Amino acid sequence: MTATAIRVLGMEKSYKNLHVLRGVDFEVAPGSIFALLGSNGAGKTTVVKILSTLVKADAGTAAVEGFDVATEPLRVRETISLTGQFAAVDEILSGRENLVLVAKLRHLKTPGHVADDLLARFNLTEAGSRKVATYSGGMRRRLDIAMSLIGQPKVIFLDEPTTGLDPESRLEVWQIVKALSRQGTTVLLTTQYLDEAEQLADRIAILHGGRIIANGTLAELKQLLPPTKVEYVEKQPSLEEIFLALVGDKGVGDEAVGNNGKVESTKDRS
Q1: N or C: which end of the chain has fewer CB within 10 A?
Q2: Domain contains 14
Q3: Same domain for 213 and 166?
């Protein structure tokens, strides 16, 4: 295992007159979750494309697991896996067939066994024989991440993996990402969601104006702003907490909308 899973130094990239990256520097420790946080158009996806050898940088150097992305692209591709913003699954095939296909493309000896193991790991066994066209957004994303793990990559890039997902599906993806890190996989996560970076990342880098303007743990980043003195705080539940409290543990038919327009439990009216 290398001392640094990902190393980026002076990375620059322009598209005609648009200067997207202006000297990006950061390092990612092996087995950690590194969040690249930034608004739309900040250049997060461009960084991922360069690191995954899909795009060449104009200047600077980058290495993944010790392999230079510019001079050793094949070695880099053998080491990594990439999950993009949209699930790259074949809707005509079943979930199991998608997994078997990727396992065969990676020349694994027992593709069926690999597929069944991943279906069980991602709670998709019962849906494995169904066409992916029938899957929910969260199920597609879980299948997409499962496909990216075939071949046991050391580094996985997740480019805004929860975009468009409902709150429950987001939490499912978060649990998967945490499990990957616990098993020793290095995760580089791009996101525009502050809570996502806060919940998942060991370190957070903020990309703005083509440069990394802050890089550290959540505790270190909090030190950048002075603490606010609060005399009294009444904690209100977040919309996500309200949503999950209402739908998380109740079956279909356990809730209804009362005459006053409020959500009620049918159990309370018995």
Answers
A1: C
A2: yes
A3: yes
